[in-house]
Design goal:
The complex is a heterodimer of chains A (about 500) and B (about 240). Chain A has about 500 residues and is an alpha/beta fold. In chain A, about 50% of the residues lie in helices and about 10% in strands. In chain A, the strands form 3 sheets. Chain A has a 6-stranded parallel sheet, sandwiched between helices. Chain A has a 4-stranded mixed sheet with strand order 8-5-6-9, with helices on both faces. Chain A has a 3-stranded antiparallel sheet with strand order 11-12-13, with no helix packed on it. In chain A, helix 15 runs parallel beside helix 17. The model of chain A is unreliable at about 1-5 (pLDDT under 50). In chain B, about 55% of the residues lie in helices and about 10% in strands. In chain B, the strands form 2 sheets. A 4-stranded parallel sheet of chain B has the order 5-4-6-7. Chain B is built from 13 helices and 7 strands. The chains are: A alpha/beta (about 500), B alpha/beta (about 240). Chains A and B meet through helix 1, helix 14, helix 16, helix 17 and helix 18 of A and helix 1, helix 2, helix 3, helix 4 and helix 5 of B. Chain A: GO terms for molecular function: 4 iron, 4 sulfur cluster binding; metal ion binding.
């Protein structure tokens, strides 16, 4: 396996979810933090006042940029090169890894300090660096904890969301060789002191990229801990890895993103540190790298271009709001999704980046399609629809579950004809006599096994609605009041408007 | 003016009382519903599972059933929401696409029709009970039916409406999700039920029998005597006292 290939966690999404469902620490920790973040986001959006208009602005900026991605990427690369940045394009994960390792080797690097970057997680870059004897040190507190634990992030912005402070104190105590109290100030203080030395001795600073500004060839980082600023000012070499879709046209557009991203991510009005970096250190600069590289990574992203159902996926600004809003993520955490990206965005992005390969698509089933992700998304990506499209593509490519396929054929046959449909209800009314006790069905077998493990199923009443209708319609005709002239004219007006193409009354945005 | 009832398969087979409440309540406002007998299911189970060919076969029965209707009223935001997917489902079949667009424009969820079309917010109901309301995801989020049920409930006399904590969270039904991902769905319905019990309400009310069947099933599993009703039933019971 190449260093860059996605690591599939063992088992199915269902099996991984069961592990999480049986882990009370994890569920409590995830609930606690997602609730805090979700509440913060809702408050920040409400206080903003024009949230939905800004979401729409954000969406339009992203739609426009992605529609003209080749143009803006070239503009960005030209401007960044004019600033003295070495710009590289990597079509695959393996190429991105190769480029990064070549720079590290040429600079004879021993250590790399990293600020938080999901794209380097996607590339499994730490393991690759380790394989050539270069130590990679994560400097974001959450990432540092995850690295110590030998795990991967379980949330896009809160990598260690699944751990509570006692578990974290345990990990950090082992690292320190002394017992640290489970107090956030003490724990953060320990990591800060430890990382200070690492910053000073590192040969390379490695970052991700929140936004790349095409008009000036600059890259922008959002963070709260100040570690990314250290990473980009202390070491002599900087390597930035960015997904090819991170581009926005101008600094003016950044204003919209800077309004949407922190509020959606954590409920903050402003991120604590926002750094805009335009090229390596110039003579007059106090600090900054002597050499700066930006590696622009495709790795499956361009597969979405020109795909009307998935292109909007590239609009994502990686805020994590969909994870915090998701009632499934809340119960199973991030690792259950099996890929680098978790939650609703991960459930779509992971298979999409892998060309919708069938073995990935079972993640798309881990959603009740409630739409909370879409509602939370600052750029209105219709993730709930995309999950359905993934399921459809799996079926259409012949990878549907055989039992389910047979079931659906049966469903279509019954529901495709009213006489059959009526017959099925009749059959149910008669057949259920075998299993109904006290008006309900409790048997945990066959298709009812999973459902009845948590619920009691109601029995079918003797008469369906259509059975009742014969008598009901007569009774209602007799007792109905007349329709008022006013209501009738309003209804007629609505019908007329509709014929002219109007008559909208709410619905899918 | 032909106003038709789209009963939905769950209300047809399991909860005919919901359809009856709707029919009788609307009759008070001069709307005598028509019931095309050839209707079946909206096709959502197949659509959401990715079986669009099967979903189209089913959807055609609905398109056919309501061809001549001026308004189509359903006791489910989710099944009405499915009709909103029909244009996508038939995007490559022009003759069906046109019919799908027409059906979408004339389809209403029950409270949408009552409030937006009939202009009714006070049905004159009296319901002296402590009630909590679960806003189902598809109705509230995707169809945008949020204000209508609140307006209707606000006017019910004697009723104490207790806010449901984390009301907007999905109950865990999700159609085939509840069968395929039974344990995740079970965790979700357990949490939703905990919140319902926290309110101390005697009655849980909603606008979608699928979600309500899910929560009611779990309440019964835990032997909790909370009564579960569709808002149409509550309103009709409230005016029939």
């Amino acid at each position: 396996m190449s260093a860059g290939k996605a690591v599939v966690r063992p088992g199915t999404v269902k099996e991984r979810a069961d592990l999480a469902l049986n882990d009370d620490f994890l569920r409590k920790a995830v609930r606690f933090t997602t609730e805090r973040l979700r509440g913060g986001k809702q408050k920040a959006a409400a206080e903003h006042g024009n949230w939905d208009e800004w979401r729409e602005r954000g969406r339009q900026i992203r739609l426009h940029t992605i529609a003209h991605l080749d143009y803006y990427l070239n503009l960005f690369a030209d401007n960044a090169r004019a600033n003295g940045v070495h710009v590289h394009f990597a079509e695959t994960d393996a190429e991105a890894v190769k480029l990064s390792l070549a720079i590290a080797e040429r600079r004879q690097a021993k250590t790399v300090v990293k600020s938080k970057s999901m794209v380097t997680e996607e590339l499994h870059l730490n393991a690759a660096l380790d394989s050539i004897g270069v130590e990679a040190i994560e400097t974001d507190l959450g990432e540092y904890i995850i690295q110590l634990a030998g795990e991967t992030p379980s949330h896009i912005i809160i990598p260690a969301i699944h751990k509570n402070r006692y578990q974290i104190a345990e990990l950090l105590s082992a690292d320190a060789g002394e017992e640290l109290l489970p107090d956030t100030t003490i724990l953060a203080g320990y990591v800060r002191k430890k990382l200070r030395e690492k910053f000073l001795e590192a040969d390379i600073g490695m970052t991700g990229c929140n936004f790349a500004i095409a008009e000036t060839g600059s890259m922008v980082l959002f963070e709260n801990e100040g570690n990314a600023r250290m990473v980009t000012t202390v070491p002599k070499t900087q390597i930035t890895l960015m997904g090819m879709e991170r581009i926005i046209p101008s600094w003016e557009d950044l204003e919209v993103m800077a309004t949407l991203l922190p509020r959606s991510a954590t409920g903050q009005k402003l991120t604590v540190y926002m750094s805009g970096i335009t090229g390596p250190r110039r003579e007059a600069d106090q600090d900054g790298p002597e050499e700066m590289h930006i590696i622009i990574v495709d790795n499956g992203r361009s597969l979405q271009l020109g795909d009307p159902e998935f292109q909007e996926l590239l609009n994502c600004i990686r805020c994590g709001a969909c994870l915090n809003a998701c009632p499934v993520y809340r119960h199973i955490g991030g690792h259950a999704y099996g890929g680098t990206y978790s939650g609703p965005i991960g459930a779509v992005l992971t298979p999409a980046l892998q060309k919708n390969v069938a073995e990935w698509d079972d993640i798309a089933n881990a959603s009740s399609l409630c739409g909370a992700c879409y509602e939370a998304c600052p750029v209105k990506i219709p993730l709930h629809d995309m999950l359905v499209y993934l399921r459809r593509r799996k079926v259409e490519s012949g990878h549907g579950n055989r039992m389910e396929s047979a079931g659906m054929k049966g469903f279509a046959a019954v529901a495709g004809k009213a006489t059959w449909f009526k017959g099925a209800i009749k059959l149910g009314q008669l057949g259920q006599k075998l299993v109904v006790r006290n008006g309900c069905i409790r048997i945990k077998a066959g298709p009812l096994k999973g459902w009845n493990s948590y619920r009691v199923t109601p029995s079918l009443p003797k008469q369906s609605f259509r059975d009742k209708w014969k008598t009901l319609s007569g009774e209602v005709q007799a007792e109905a009041m007349p329709l008022s002239a006013e209501t009738r004219s309003r209804m007629e007006q609505l019908v007329r408007e509709r014929e002219k193409g109007g008559g909208g009354h709410g619905g899918h945005a | 003016m032909k106003v038709s009832l789209f009963i939905t398969c769950l209300s047809d087979a399991i909860y005919p009382r919901v359809g009856e409440a709707m029919v009788r309540l609307l009759a008070k406002y001069g709307v005598t519903l028509d019931f095309p007998d050839v209707q079946t299911c909206c096709g959502q189970p197949a659509y959401n599972s990715g079986y669009w060919k099967e979903a189209r076969e089913t959807a055609k029965t609905i398109l056919h059933a309501f061809e001549d209707s001026d308004f189509v009223i359903s006791p489910s935001g989710s099944c009405t929401g499915m009709i909103h997917h029909y244009p996508k489902l038939f995007e490559k079949e022009p003759e069906w696409l046109d019919r799908a667009e027409r059906l979408k424009r004339k389809s209403y969820e029950f409270t949408q029709f009552l409030v937006q079309v009939l202009g009714v917010t006070d049905v004159g109901a009296v319901f002296p009970h402590k009630v909590t309301y679960h806003p189902s995801c598809h109705g509230s989020r995707l169809l945008g039916v949020k204000a209508e049920p609140m307006e209707l409930m606000r006017h019910v006399k004697g009723m104490e409406l207790v806010p449901l904590p984390f009301a907007e969270d999905c109950c865990g039904f999700g159609g085939t999700f509840a069968v395929k991902m039974a344990d995740i769905s079970g965790a979700m319905v357990a949490e939703k039920t905990d919140h319902v019990l926290e309110t101390d309400a005697e009655v849980l009310v909603g606008l979608d029998m699928a979600c309500l069947m899910n929560i009611a099933g779990h309440l019964r599993y835990r032997n909790e005597p909370v009564r579960v009703m569709h808002l149409a039933e509550l309103l009709y019971e409230g005016v029939s006292r």
